[in-house]
Specification:
single chain, Poly(a)-polymerase, middle domain, Serine Threonine Protein Phosphatase 5, Tetratricopeptide repeat, 12% strand, two-stranded antiparallel sheet, 680 residues, 29 helices, alpha+beta
């Protein structure tokens, strides 16, 4: 009976968290895009960054934070003075990690050689004639980072938290060491069974990070730093088999929906990091006989008991530095007693509690009821259809395969880097992500070259020919909606009939019921149209996403105020629904050759936005949609209608930060209307 429930739970977790193939895809897309970014940025910029946390591990659970770490490329932390010889002190700020005055897992960072870095210098403090970097002062960098892009943030631990739309971002500024901490050397010796030797070697050679938070029981809390193994932990999670990963995911769900449900942040004693640590220890100590679908519940029980034991003893040993008790000064006395009693009660009714977790409960009551074949199946192909998998893939690629580069030189560096990676052994997901990344760069280059095309006729012809070639490549590897930028290019270069020809082809494909827009699609019709075909074929024939316009690039003269004011408000892109952009381009083109058709297209655009019957205009970006309606009304002479559309744009959530541009356009219309009435 227990094994049957485990099999059903395995299917539920595959549906909620992801099958092994879905998780591999998410990781591959994130890995290859980060590889491109790091190769391009490491030589050009002063800082490197890394996505961390549960999102990078492969989870996409509702409410998950987007965690990121940033560090200076020209600073390195050493553990022994002999390691200085690995660097050029005139170009690298050398920092010595002094663990002798701190509790296990923490260190003081002492400056040995200085370089001119304002942020680091501002965080310096002097103790006994030596220069140390204050963690409390350095944490302010994260707040400064969000304030520069005009977002309000608060400090939580070593990170600054900020909501951008519905998503919560955690940004930590840190320092990096290329060497493995001596205090974690015992971990290497423990790794006889897990992870594999090549994983251990890879982890050790990548060193560790230092995040700006001190131990509350230490003597130097304000300028102490915590040793972070985020990259090592990511590699360990990657090395888990799928049942181990699902058990980790189940513990995270149980923590959020059962243990911590209804508690304030101050009352939450356990966090997902404790769950991950428990899974690490259980795997390495071979406590579980078999990590397989039939044993999901047993595996969960073993990990839960591990946590119970830790709470009872008041000791949670860090996986890399066991001497670092992560419960110290947090779970003791009355709090420890109450938490142990609560966890013991939950353990006794854990089966009932697991089934009542909302996402799992939904799977049991809806999916199983409609498809009983899934009840005891371990075939992961049953849990995610081809359509659902494609939705996941396009979502990941759209969100990650784009850079904010807005100049020719950097864009070409991206293409060269992608070209180098293409020659390496790659998975099919690596290739799909790089193809879409390339398409976005091709589109940028076409507009960048066009904007800088001010030479002789012969030179202009060559530039235009090159830009058109870029467009052709983008159309081959990009989404169907990317072809709208091909139309924009033709319109901008006064090729109206060519623009209308491409628009007509897009219209036919947009009208098909098999079109996948964001995550909305008729599954049967989609499979009938493109099922079994390559992803490049699917994307150019049947996939539309919202269109990004990078504000540093001039795509359409009519949108210059929107892009400029949005950029001044620290917004790097405009995000436009493809159907709105389609009708805008249609109106712009028709008004030059078929004015009556322009009016019909304007009516269609107005109905699309105001009625939004088929949800083709996401509520989050109604601001730009009403703005574009107003622009189209304004260019066709409907000034009063345009004014009301702009006013409606102001009432929407300002995702694209258009308020200043909208007020500018409204003032322009008012001035013109007043002038016309005076003249009449």
């Amino acid at each position: 009976m227990e094994q049957h429930i485990s099999l059903t739970l395995f299917g539920g977790l595959c549906s909620v968290i992801g099958t092994s193939e879905v998780i591999a895809m998410r990781r591959d897309v994130a890995d290859v895009i980060e590889a491109v970014e790091q190769r391009v940025r490491s030589s050009d910029e002063s800082m490197s960054s890394m996505e961390s946390g549960s999102q990078r591990e492969g989870f996409r659970l509702i409410g998950s934070d987007l965690d990121s770490m940033k560090w200076f490329n020209d600073h390195r932390v050493i553990w022994e003075f002999s390691q200085i010889q690995s660097y050029n002190p005139s170009r690298t700020g050398i920092i010595f990690a002094d663990c002798s005055k701190s509790l296990p897992g923490y260190a003081l960072l002492q400056f040995i050689t200085f370089i001119n870095n304002k942020d680091t210098i501002e965080a310096l403090v002097v103790r006994n004639g030596e220069y140390y970097i204050s963690s409390s002062k350095f944490r302010q960098m994260a707040l400064k980072f969000f304030s520069l892009i005009k977002y309000s943030a608060t400090l939580h631990g070593p990170c600054a938290n900020c909501f951008i739309g519905p998503l919560k971002y955690d940004q930590a500024f840190c320092f990096v060491s290329d060497f493995w901490p001596p205090s974690a050397s015992s971990w290497i010796k423990r790794c006889s069974t897990w992870p594999r030797p090549e994983v251990v070697h890879d982890i050790v050679k990548h060193g560790c990070h230092f995040v700006a938070i001190g131990h509350k029981m230490g003597n130097h809390e304000d300028f102490e730093w915590r040793i972070s193994f985020s990259l090592a932990e990511q590699k360990l999670v990657y090395s888990m088999n799928h049942c181990q990963f699902l058990t980790y995911g189940l513990l995270k769900l149980f923590l959020k929906e059962v243990i911590n449900k209804g508690l304030t942040d101050n009352d939450k004693q356990l966090c997902s990091y404790h769950m991950k640590t428990a899974v690490f220890w259980v795997i390495q100590q071979n406590t579980v006989s078999c990590w397989c679908p039939q044993n999901i519940l047993e595996n969960f029980d073993v990990c839960f008991k591990h946590i119970l034991k830790w709470v009872y003893n008041g000791v949670c040993p860090n996986f890399f530095i066991p001497e670092n008790n992560m419960f110290l000064n947090k779970i003791n006395g009355r709090v420890q007693e109450m938490l142990f009693r609560r966890l013991s009660e939950l353990y006794d009714r854990r089966r009932q509690a697991i089934v009542q977790i909302p996402l799992i409960s939904w799977y049991f009551t809806h999916v199983i009821r409609n498809n009983p074949i899934l009840l005891f199946s371990t075939n992961e192909n049953f849990f995610v259809s081809e359509t659902n998998f494609d939705e996941e893939l396009y979502f990941e690629i759209f969100n990650k395969a784009a850079s904010d580069a807005s100049d020719i030189i950097t864009s070409i560096k991206y293409l060269n880097t992608i070209n180098q990676l293409i020659n390496l052994p790659l998975s099919q997901y690596h290739v799909a992500a790089l193809q879409k990344f390339s398409a976005s760069i091709f589109l940028k280059l076409a507009f960048l070259f066009q904007s800088n095309n001010k030479g002789t006729n012969k030179f202009s012809y060559s530039v235009d020919k090159f830009a058109c070639y870029m467009m052709k490549l983008a159309a081959k590897f990009g989404f169907l909606s990317d072809k709208l930028l091909v139309v924009a290019y033709y319109y901008k270069t006064s090729r109206i009939l060519e623009a209308l020809s491409v628009l007509e082809k897009i219209r036919v494909k947009f009208a098909k019921q098999s079109l996948m827009y964001n995550r909305s699609v008729d599954e049967d019709l989609y499979i009938a149209a493109v099922g079994g075909k390559s992803w490049s074929t699917k994307t150019r024939e049947s996939v539309a996403r919202d269109v990004r316009l990078f504000n540093g690039i001039n795509y359409l003269n009519e949108l210059i105020p929107e892009q400029q004011f949005s950029l001044r408000n620290k917004k790097l892109t405009l995000l436009i629904p493809p159907f709105v952009l389609f009708h805008m381009l249609e109106i712009f083109c028709y008004r030059l050759v078929y004015p009556k058709k322009a009016n019909n297209a304007l009516s269609t655009l107005k109905n699309l936005i105001c009625e939004n019957k088929n949800f083709k205009v996401p509520y989050a970006i109604l601001d730009i949609s009403y703005q574009i309606l107003g622009i189209c009304q304004q260019v066709t002479g409907n000034l009063e209608d345009a004014f009301y559309s702009y006013r409606e744009s102001l009432r929407q959530h300002q995702f694209n930060r258009l308020k200043t541009a909208t007020l500018f356009r409204m003032c322009t219309i008012l001035y013109r209307l007043i002038h016309e009435r005076r003249m009449s």
